[in-house]
Sequence to fold (198 residues):
Amino acid sequence: MWNVSGSYYEACNCQVVCPCRREGDRMGGRSTYGVCDFVLSWWLSAGEKGGCDLTGCKVVMVGHYSDDAPGSPWTVSLLVDTDASDEQFEALTDIFLGRAGGDPYRQYGSSIESVAGIHRADIALVHEKRRWRIGVDRVIEVRSVEPANADGPVTCGIPGHNQPGTEMVSDIIAVDLDEFHWDVRSRCSYESQFSYSG
Fold:
């Protein structure tokens, strides 16, 4: 048994409001350009797996998928903060890649087909209103300040549709890691809370 919870912030190359999300009565659909390039971040305010305390840990996932590929399989890289112990690193990798089953596997992990890399990295997260940021060494930079206009509540399947959140406009989404390389401005981003167990 395990459980993790905390704050969640993501950004991708879609236009605002991300068409993958539920917006009011509109269900999610295809990404804006048919290919989704994304950065996801989780900051744990509480959590444990097998007696290993995961409180305060930070995790980032970068990846992409094509809507036209059968099943839209994901290719991802996972980054775990350098402050994590070896035991925490193993637990976080299993949980957030969906290998430990539970909510992450059901909500997104079953879509992961290949893993380009698993890394320790210096992760700087700011999960605060109008100051949202993901910074990973010199390879990832994501920032958001302004909330977006939305027609009703916006939810996302990764933190869970039971967790309402806020759609935002990203200032920058820049990635240069493994096979992922992009730099886009004024695209969609999203913040919420998450609570996973398995």
